[in-house]
Amino acid sequence: MFNKLFYFLPILFLLASCSNDEVDITQLKANGGAKYGGEFRFMSSEKITTLFPVATNDVYNQRVSSQIFETILKIDLKSNKVTPNIASSFTISPDAKKFTLKIREGVMFHDDECFSGGTGRELTAEDVKYTLDFACSGLKINEMSWMLVDKIKGAKEFFKKSKSSIPEGGVSGIKVVDDNTVTIELVDPFVGFDKILTHSSLGVFPREAYETYKNDVIKHPVGTGPFKLEDWNSKHVVLTRNNTYWRKDDFGNQLPFLEKITVSYAQNKKSELMAFRNKEIDLVLEIPVDEIENVLGSLEDAQAGMTVKHKIDSKNSLSTTYFGFAHQSAPFNNIKVRQAFNIAIDRNYIVNNYLKGEGYPSEYGFVPAIESYTNERVKGYKLNIEKAQKLLADAGYANGEGFPTTDLYVNAKKGDPIYLLALGVKDQLKANLNVNINIKLCTINERDNAISNGTAKFWRSGWIADYPDPENFLYLFSGDHIGSNSTTMNPVKYNSPEYDRLLKSSMKERNPKVRNEFFVKCDQMLIDDAVIMPLINDDFITMINSKVKNFETNSMEMLDFSSIFIKEPKK
Which domains does the chain have, with CATH numbers? Predict the structure, then answer.
């Protein structure tokens, strides 16, 4: 009792003495060499369109929303292991069908007009249940139902009856035991379910926010994270410090250290690098290494003070870039066409000659190497022009005759690495199959709209692991997603009962070796059926101003700004 009272007294004192907006960060002192204050700036290549967790389905929106909202569990950036977060602890039943979450006390929602008096309240188990119920709903704003509906008991029934509102009682398999305990009962055993609870799109939010703002909640984010929304317009998104954030670092410092985060938009990668050179931003993501010296000079120049002092970090990314085919439309409803496309291109040549060595050709399966999963057992595509030409002829397009000029939708700008990748594919398909491809540059939203309405037959896509498990990649092409018309989950409309059977078996299996066997078989099916055109895997390369401390990345390209601080070099 004493410890609990001691824990809450500082919080009560803070709330009583000043509001969230009245804390003077410049007066805060940090232990361990850290420093409070300062603005951190970076650019996004895509516009931020939503800051509501379950409505985000791309990395650009998630990188910002994840600073505002917090997940039930999280992935440790260093170990890639599941650790507590909003839930202070969790347990898994012996049959892997029931998960029990203990919800952390003292976590406060941001101040917002959706609450009585505008003051944020404490998060409870009811908020966790409401968030998970919402993520299982059939509401149009919810993009994440695919992740939970087939896994949680009662979620399918709930999905069907929640097309226009959230019914009372929620999902039967999600229960509030008391103010700080939630249980989740699954339909089938799934040993990896704890990893799903780390997904950034499952950031916890209060019922009041959705009931107040309805679909406009995408522009009124109310979370518990280290930062809250201050301003959002066509030029930038500005986040400010959450002065009542619950987390502390190893030195006892209340997080976060930063006063402000500003996200602006890059015209192209060169303009982003120039902004970095001019000290207008502090971070560059996904940098083209061959351009660094052209814009910034050498690393030695930077160290000598001739340009911005910076650090470059590189991690093997659990990401893949692929091109999708519309399986339900000619000509890609013919497996021979898809197979011909896949073996008519030399991925190594494209990486070396179009991308100047950036990335690694997808030589094996769709899934990159993850922890104990070895993708080298999957037999990937090898260049075979003669066989590709025969397959295309067998499909009725000998020497490319009669094959329609096909638009390739690519969310990139001319000169970007993704554009150069598409150019390499286009050139090789013309040279080896006499097929004409037209690269159609567009935004993510334009591409997704074209996929949804059936205009796009061939498009660029990619996937970054939400959690380090092959299932996260393979579940993309589950037949369960076909009816949802999702532009993220199985947009190609792949339909294979055998693939679905193997995938579901992998989710139930507790023996890691047996589980990996299911994964390998699924991965091989994606190759044999030419479901997509896997092209490259990447490194996640970032460049950051050396004045920014404690910045870390990981293989899932997650960004956590809660612990970073700015320390200007001594003059």
Answer: 50-224 (3.90.76.10), 317-539 (3.10.105.10)
